[in-house]
Amino acid sequence: MVSSKLYALKRLPWFEIFLVVVVMSVSMYAALSDAQNFSLRWFTRDDAYYYFKVAQNISEGHGPTFDGINKTNGYHPLWMLVCIPLFALARFDLVLPLRILLLVMAGLQVSTAILLYRLLGKIFAPAIGALAALYWVFNFDILVNLYMQGLESGIAAFFVVLLIYKLYQFETAWRKPNNTQRQLVSLGVLGALTIFSRLDLIFLVAFAGIWVVFRGSGFRWFLPLDIVAAIISVLLAFILRLGLPEYFAYTNAALAMAGLGLASKLLCAFFFGLYQKHILMNAWKTLARVALSTVASSALLGVAMLTLSQLGDINGFPRVVIATDFIFTLLFFGLTRLGYAALRNKKLETPSTVTPFAEVTQQWKTWLHDGLAFFGISFGALAVYMLWNKLAIGSFSPVSGQIKRWWGSFPARVYGGATRSPFEFFGVDFQGDGLAWTPITNTLGGWVAPLSNMTREVQSFYLYALIALSLFGCAALFLNKNKSRIAIAQLALIPLMAGSFMQAISYHATGYSAYKEWYWVTQRVSSILLLCAAIGLAFTLTRKVKYRQVFAWVAVLYLGVGMWQTYWAGIKLTMQYNRWSDDAPMMEIATLLEANTAPGSLIGFTGGGNVGYFIHDRAILNMDGLINSPEYFEHLQNGTAGEYLASIGLDYVLANPGILDRQPYDGQFNEYLRPTAVSYGGKQLLQYESPK
């Protein structure tokens, strides 16, 4: 009896219990601190309060609106659903939902860490999983960028890691006789939730679908990589020829060529057998097929682009990009095939004479059936949501994304403008809002930056370092080829990496403006998995070392204690007790407006998220359009927004008049504005009146 109890105690997930207790205890400490900490030190982003105020309005029966007038869809739906019941409590106390939300975010953070622990612990060793988990919960940069913002990034990270974990379970089970169809349906549901957590995760889910539907086929391994390679090769060719921002004058041509190139390259790769695993067993024959496929696809692409140019469907393009794209396509398609050939298990390879067409003929019904199970649910749910958006709000996609792409088309950079860094364009920058692959790229950039004071030289050094790191990472795969193959498959690294690159490119290739550091969820997860995989592969070399598991745990716990100390110090410094008096305002600017405007006033802001949440008896209207209606966006584009705001009864505007004179506003409100003597932080309170 006693021994069975001891056995039960040993089987308890002690590390997970420890993690939950520590993280939630610290979070409870923060949640019970002074009320002003939440508005001034924790949830400080306007974007978070866009969620909070809309959720409050929905809970009170006003519908999806920030200002009480304009219906909006400028948010990711799953996080909004989480916020609605929490911010129903705002009618009693504005700070209470923020206290609870902090605990919800902490729960998401520790849940994500536990999934990382289980995933990496099963593939490599529990100590390596623990290292990833401790880093995820105690790294202050992750806390600040993914959880402290109060945005959808926390729930997005959870579903990204949960999807990878479920793909791991699928990978270990699909070769066995079981109910694969039920697993695909389950993955489809999870894919839908992942998309709804952040809509740009559609790329990850799409590649995950390819990964599971084409299991057992060469399409599984090469199609995601080929899609990304085909698009990157075209865009890279344009950027090398034109530079940035000159590229954006040829965006339509670049995107047209990327689309046509994708179709021609995949079609030729299929015809030349580049998705047949048995054909790729001989390196020289493989390279010959890659070369022939690339020549054929480049010829087709060149003819198509020249035809479009002659027809006037595109505004011209530099012809040299066809040759440059040829070189990159040959390089990318060749490297993936050679990498596969080098890592494959020759003992498991079975000779086959099945042609590409024969494989499709034999498998298309299975692929269609499985594809409907996965994509029918995940993408079908997205289609329903988009239709609801159109019917209820007036736009299929979030208006906030449309506006940021519109901003990116302006030469003025009031809201940051489109990227001007090639590294940022492809999502591998080491600084700024384009920093995605942290902690890999920022650490690499930190090593390189002291080598030169000149920006151009630093970028050159960083490029060389990035190439060297990539080669080193590829070489690490050969520490243990068998374990590398297993890790690549079980961590779903191919769909994860492909989705990460496509997400970044989808923003930058179209000139998206005002992208933020919390967008890059899949890249952060990928970075941690890659680093832990490298550590795990190195750990396999210590199989003969006695007590290696003990040594690994000691090292991990030592690092964990160091991270915990920094984390705890940051929490205590941020969420202080008895720092603020009970009557200290949550937002000084809200108090100022309450003292200088009449109750019931409608006040325009070029941002205004946090003020909109904390102000009493007044409503804030968002003038930049991110959390406004598609109708208002149309008026902004047409130059009639001033008239529109007058028609809905705008009373005041608090803004810098100089900003309103520039793009994207272009002075269209000026004739309605009357100055007052009230100002705050460089902004002036202006009465909004129809011209006499």
Provide a descriptive summary of the structure in words.
With 692 residues, the protein is mostly helical. Among the domains are: 214-353, no CATH class; 410-542, no CATH class; 588-688, no CATH class. Helix content is 65%, strand content 4%. The chain has 29 helices and five strands. The chain has helices spanning 2-11, 14-31, 36-42, 46-59, 77-87, 96-123, 126-138, 140-147, 153-173, 180-197, 202-213, 218-242, 251-271, 283-311, 320-343, 356-392, 399-408, 422-425, 440-448, 455-476, 481-490, 493-508, 521-539, 548-574, 588-596, 609-614, 630-638, 641-647, 657-661, and strands at residues 602-605, 619-622, 652-655, 673-680, 683-688. The longest helix has 37 residues, at 356-392.
Entry keywords:
mainly alpha; five-stranded mixed sheet; 4% strand; 29 helices
Question: Could you write a compact summary of the structure shown?
Answer:
Helix content is about 65%, strand content about 5%.
Uncertain regions: pLDDT < 50 for 5+ in a row? Answer: none
SS summary, helix count: 29
Query: How confident is the prediction overall: mean pLDDT?
Result: 92
Rounded to an integer, what's the Rg over CA atoms? 27 Å
How would you name the oligomeric state of the polypeptide chains in this document?
Answer: single chain
- How many angstroms does the end-to-end distance come to? 91 Å
- Report helical residue fraction: 55-70%
The counted number of beta strands is 5
Strand order of the largest sheet: 2-1-3-5-4
Largest sheet report: 5 strands, mixed
Q: What structural class should be given to the helix and strand makeup?
A: mainly alpha
Shape: globular
Strand residue percentage: under 5%
